[in-house]
Each structure stands twice: as structure tokens, then as C-alpha cells.
Amino acid sequence: METKRRVLVKLSGEILAGEAGTGIDSRALGRVADELREGHEEGVEIAVVIGGGNLIRGTAVAGEELDRTTADSMGMLATVINALALQDSLEHRGLATRVLSAIEMRMLAEPYIRRRAVRHLEKGRIVILAAGTGHPYFTTDTAAVLRSIEIGAHLLLKATKVDGVFTEDPELNPMAERFDTLHYREAIDRRLDVMDQTAFTMGMEHRLPLVVFNVTVPGNLARALKGETVGTLVEV
Predict the structure, then answer these.
(1) Which of 18-32, 56-70, 174-188, 192-206 is the least confident region?
(2) What is the pLDDT of residues 212-235, one digit of tens each?
(3) 1 in any annotated domain
(4) Which domain covers residue 21, as residue numbers?
(5) Is residue 144 domain-resident?
(6) Predicted pLDDT at 65
(7) CA separation (Å) from 159 to 50, 61, 69, 116, 185?
(8) DSSP string covering the chain, please?
(9) What is the per-residue pLDDT across 15-54, written as a single tens digit (0 to 9) for each?
(10) 118: exposed, middle or buried (C-beta count within 10 Å: 0-12, 13-18, 19+)?
(11) Is the model's pLDDT at 1 over the cut of 50?
């Protein structure tokens, strides 16, 4: 039997904020859900790791009044809020979904169990993975790479606000050039800011193909899910 293509989407919370920059914008949420549905209708098994930066970012609020561990825990809870919003939006479009949380909260989500996540994917459900790794000091980038490896994803899509990986920050240098393809080792040697080093090193060690692309461009997420060329492909 032919194995279906399995993709994990790392979606930053800021994408759900739309032009407001904070909170959850219904139009931004709906567009993401529409494009996930389009990819799902092509037979792709889809898992999503979602961030919480549109609501709260642990590293930003940690300080004299808040311990980093507490702040990161608050950030992980924010990802659960986003996951529930995305679940509702997808289910309004007739899609079966499951939210699995690394922090146990049975009234809202199933606990994350690798075998359970894989089984949901095999049954055609979109799986939304919330609460990061369940531990402070680890980013949702790390959670995305870890979950990709655990569930046997063929590809990790990092949905951002930039068109891919550039030689320099394109906002600081408009002459910066975008890579179409890039090797993990070259990105490390050039000190390119693709994702945090823990996540990036883990992806390289497990030979996980990674696509970095601009999800704010309408249609890009659906195209990336279908395997079309979008953004920058990072591979070993």
C-alpha cells in the first residue's frame, strides 16, 4: 500500500494575529484553515505545531517579576488557546481534527502520545500539537523538529513572514539574496538565523528536510503542502 505524504507545519502564533499584530484575527485564522483544508484534500497527512507569540511570549515577559520557567509555562498555555481556535476553524470546514497537548488538560485536549498522534493521522485527521515540548526553555521550533521526527514526517514546513532563508536579514539589507536550496551545514557555517540551534542541529542529525516560506502570501501554505516549490529548501 502506498504511504501517504506526511507533513508537519510549524505555524508561528503571530500569523493568526493578522494585521493587528496581537490576538486572533478571524480572517487570518480562516485563511490558514482554508489552505490546510486544500492540502488535506490532496491526501496529505497534516500535523501542526503552533506557537503562542500573538498572545504571550515567555522570553519577553520573563524578568524581575516573573521567573523564566513560569513565563515559558504561560507561553505554552498560549499555544493551547491558538490550537483550540485553529481546531474550531478547521471543524467549521468539515475537517476532523484532534488537539494533543504536551501539558495534560483533559477537559480541552488529549495528552500527547506519539502512537495516538500517528493513529489520528492515519485516520485522516489533522493533528494540532500544542504546549510545545511541555518543558520550559525549549522553543516551538524545537517542538516542531522533535514531533516531526517522532511521527515520521517526510517534511517540516516552517511557516514564517519571510520568503525563505537569506544571506542576510532582508529587512536590514534589501540586497540580501534568498537561497532556493541550502544545506544544514552551510547554514550553520554562515550562522544563518533559520531556527534556534537546538532545533536546527536536531533536524540535521535526523536528516529532516525543512522548507522555510512566507505563509502570509495567499496560497503559499497550500502549495507547500502539495510539494510545490516555495521558499527555501534546507536539507543535509
Answers:
(1) 56-70
(2) 999 999 999 999 999 999 999 999
(3) no
(4) 6-235
(5) yes
(6) 86
(7) 10, 24, 26, 25, 21
(8) -PPPPEEEEEE-GGGGGGGGSSS--HHHHHHHHHHHHHHHHTT-EEEEEE--TTT--HHHH-SSSS-HHHHHHHHHHHHHHHHHHHHHHHHTTT--EEEEESS--TTTSEEP-HHHHHHHHHTT-EEEEESTTSSTT--HHHHHHHHHHHHT-SEEEEEESSSS-BSS-TTT-TTPPBPSEEEHHHHHHTT--SS-HHHHHHHHHTT--EEEEETTSTTHHHHHHTT---SEEEE-
(9) 999 988 899 999 999 999 999 999 999 999 999 999 999 9
(10) middle
(11) no
140/144 Cα distance (integer angstroms): 6
Total domains, the chain: 1
Kindly state the cell numbers that stand for 51. 506557537
The confidence band for 170, taking pLDDT boundaries of 50, 70 and 90, is confident
- The CATH number given to whatever domain includes residue 123 is 3.40.1160.10
Could you read off the pLDDT of 62-108 as tens digits, one per residue? 877 889 999 999 999 999 999 999 999 999 999 999 999 999 999 99
Q: Which residues of 144-179 are buried (b: 16+ CB within 10 A; e: fewer)?
A: bbbbbbbbebbbbbbbbebbbbbeeeeeeeeeeeeb
